[in-house]
Amino acid sequence: CAYRAVEAPAGSWQAQQAALAKLQQWELSARLGIITPDERGSLSLFWRQNQDDYRLNLTNVVGKRVFDLNRQRRQIVLTDSEGRRHSADSARDLVFRLTGWDLPVEQLSNWIKGLPGEADRVEYDDDGRPKILVSNDWRLEYLGYTRIDGLWLPSRLTLTHADTTLRLAISQWELL
Amino acid sequence: DARADLQKKLATFERFSASFSQQVFDERGEPMQSAGGTMELSRPDRFRWHTQVPDESLIVSNGTDVWMYDPFVEQVTIVPLAEAVLNTPFLLIAGSDGHRWQQYDVSRQGDAYVVKSRNAAELIKEFSLTFDRQNRIERFVVIESGGQRSEFSLSEVDTSPTFQAGRFQFNPPSGVMIDDQR
Asked: Considering only CA atoms, which of A150, A142, A151, A169 is closest in space to residue A34?
């Protein structure tokens, strides 16, 4: 017999999860705080995602580029603060090699939407949205959400991994 | 010549305050980060750069040392002025004697003064300064290698503000980490 795709009840986590998975084109502006045992600072992050391609642009407090990470047609290129271009197959290795920061870009592009990976262990808040997420040695805590076009999207989260803490305060979401 | 003109225009004020809105563009002119706040200057080299939106941060210079307060990570970093990672236009505007200008070429493009560094290693390729009819700076644009551009539009410009004593000092709030790099 024919299966009719049963639309999950609106407002349920299943409906939210499906919508988040479909959301493949978006932009966000955020403050990214980086706290490690020997470094503490924050930068202004602009992130534009388009399917698997992305641009992550980080500037310092007066707007000067720290780095610009671009993935287009499977080519990953990072332009550093001196304007030098570096490329590699893995964005995470490239960022780590050049800055010492561990930034799992591909996973983060889902986590930052509030969409856990299949294998991630998740605790939900009273409104059925992810509150705590654990994935291998990453622990995320979602501290606030904002509602955009009927979708809950994170506005504040912290990510901890080994002795590094990342703080994200997302001031603007744009769904394209 | 254009450089002398520009220095003369800048010499018409010793103190300066304005609100700024800043927009960063990528190399294709697509908008990215934006911010806004106030900037205050009292030559030589005393200034407050207070970003208020979307997140607060404060840079204060007393002419010798620069405090960079970042409430987002509850820290203030103190560095000697020479090492403060600011952007060149502001340092040039903030300076009082002309020696900093030696390493720059200045040309006119329409109503903008375009300043280029002679030192190829300098990160900032070029910046431009535009004045309004009352000789007040209304815009400066910083162009980085690769074409990324940061545009600062100024409003509520005052070229003779009065600053209370201690305006260019910074006392860290309690509980803030102090990273003194002097």
From this structure: A169
For tokens 């294709």, the residue is: B28
* C-alpha separations of B136 from A31, B11, B22 in Å: 32, 11, 17
- Alpha carbons within 13 A on the beta-carbon side of A121: 6
Confidence class for position A120, pLDDT limits 50, 70, 90? very high
Residue A48's identity, in one-letter code, is R
Residue B149 identity = R
Nearest to A76 by CA among A62, A96, A55: A55
Residue A3 has pLDDT above 90, yes or no: no
Which of B21, B38, B55 to mutate against chain A (most A CBs within 10 Å)? B55
Which residues of chain B carry a pLDDT beneath 70?
Answer: 85-88, 123
Distance (Å, rounded) from C-alpha B121 to C-alpha B68?
A: 25
Given an 8 Å threshold on Cβ–Cβ distance, is B144 in contact with A61?
no
- Prediction pTM value: 0.92
Residue A82 tokens, joined:
């001196």
Residue B95: C-alpha distances to residues A34, A59, B123, B157 (Å): 32, 25, 19, 18
* pLDDT the model gives residue A8: 63
Tell me what pLDDT residue B158 has.
95
Residue A92 forms contact with B (CB below 8 Å):
no
Residue A29 DSSP SS3? strand
